């Protein structure tokens, strides 16, 4: 599946309750991505500077607390990020951060200066602080991260949402600490952060993805049905009825909005859900097959093996523990 990049702008975010998370496809996907092990640092800038990052595929986020900076990549172009703004790049590959002031190649920062009191400085070490931001990485620990994150935007820009900056502060404090329960707190904070950033009734653009599908009220009914009742023997005709559309109209509309056919999406979701259940090792293969919509364990095993390459039983036995993210020393230098 090839998903085209698109940028998602948000003016405000919505509060996520525990109840809504249970039947909200976006919340389910973020939870199944298993975001964890973030590293958050405070970065200050003065004068002209620019930083380029190419090595990390991990989700990257920035909350600008003072001043402004510019974000640039070859897909989204250049975006101004001002105080109070938040940006999220679910798959950070090749991008640049630049000072608001014009900069040149000789202003490129190779190794940011580590300040005595903590944090990092880019640009002039002795100049006045013109920009302050909290930046960091997290890791999607699910082995379905490629599929699930492909349903998210390439770039999210949230304007003027103070609550996200507060979440970033909490993430930074928790990441630097060593209190009991740290890992669990970090994962839940990250889930809230990602959901708050992604959920919106704002403009979602014209590129395909889950958010565009969920912004269509009729398609959203069908998508919620697939997520809340994966055990049902769905057909395209039944999903079309959920959306109050004709069969052909629904199929075309879903393909255009989400970027894949309805049954392709349903199969991908069922198998992602099955993997999550197998990793938990709390149910038999037969029970999991029933929960995700297969009439028999054998039919489920055939479909699972065809997609994953191993049987469900072997997958459950051999699944390794989730990744713990980058070591702290690997994060140093990757802060902008």
Report on the structure:
By secondary structure, this protein is α+β, with helices and mostly antiparallel strands. It folds into two domains: 7-208 and 327-331, Jelly Rolls (Sandwich); 210-318, Homeodomain-like (Arc Repressor Mutant, subunit A), CATH 1.10.10. The chain is 41% helix and 20% strand. It has 14 helices and twelve strands. It has helices at residues 18-22, 25-33, 145-149, 162-176, 182-198, 210-215, 217-228, 236-242, 247-258, 262-280, 285-291, 297-308, 312-318, 328-331; strands at residues 7-10, 35-46, 50-53, 60-66, 68-73, 77-82, 86-89, 95-99, 113-114, 120-123, 131-140, 155-158. Strand 9 (113-114) and strand 10 (120-123) form a beta hairpin. Helix 2 runs antiparallel to helix 5 (182-198). The chain is elongated, with a radius of gyration of 21 Å. The two termini are 30 Å apart. Mean pLDDT is 78; it is low at 1-22 and 321-336.
Question: Which terms summarize this structure?
Answer:
disordered N terminus, alpha+beta, 8-stranded mixed sheet, 336 residues, Arc Repressor Mutant, subunit A, Jelly Rolls, 14 helices, 12 strands, disordered C terminus
């Amino acid at each position: 599946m090839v998903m085209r990049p698109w940028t998602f702008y948000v003016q405000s975010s919505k509060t996520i309750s525990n109840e809504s998370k249970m039947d909200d496809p976006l919340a389910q996907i973020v939870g199944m991505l298993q975001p964890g092990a973030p590293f958050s640092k405070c970065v200050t800038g003065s004068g002209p500077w620019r930083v380029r990052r190419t090595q990390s595929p991990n989700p990257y986020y920035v909350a600008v607390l003072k001043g402004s900076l510019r974000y640039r990549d070859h897909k989204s172009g250049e975006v101004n990020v001002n105080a109070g703004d938040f940006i999220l790049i679910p798959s950070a590959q090749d991008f640049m951060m630049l000072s608001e002031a014009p900069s040149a190649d000789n202003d490129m920062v190779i190794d940011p200066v580590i300040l005595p009191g903590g944090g990092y400085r880019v640009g002039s070490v002795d100049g006045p602080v013109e920009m302050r931001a909290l930046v960091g990485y997290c890791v999607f620990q699910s082995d379905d991260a490629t599929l699930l994150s492909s349903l998210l935007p390439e770039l999210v820009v949230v304007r003027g949402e103070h609550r996200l900056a507060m979440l970033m502060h909490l993430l930074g404090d928790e990441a630097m600490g060593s209190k009991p329960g740290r890992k669990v707190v970090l994962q839940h904070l990250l889930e809230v952060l990602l959901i708050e950033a992604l959920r919106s009734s704002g403009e979602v653009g014209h590129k395909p993805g889950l958010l565009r599908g969920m912004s269509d009220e009729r398609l959203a009914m069908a998508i919620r049905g697939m997520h809340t009742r994966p055990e049902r023997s769905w057909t395209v005709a039944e999903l079309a009825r959920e959306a109050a559309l004709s069969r052909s109209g629904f199929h075309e509309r879903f393909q255009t909005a989400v970027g894949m056919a309805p049954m392709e999406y349903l199969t991908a979701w069922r198998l992602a859900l099955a993997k999550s259940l197998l990793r938990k090792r709390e149910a038999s293969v037969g029970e999991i097959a029933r929960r995700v919509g297969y009439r028999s364990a054998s039919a489920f095993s055939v479909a699972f093996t065809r997609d994953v390459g191993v049987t469900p039983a072997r997958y459950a036995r051999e699944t390794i523990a989730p990744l713990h993210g980058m070591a702290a020393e690997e994060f140093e230098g990757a802060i902008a």
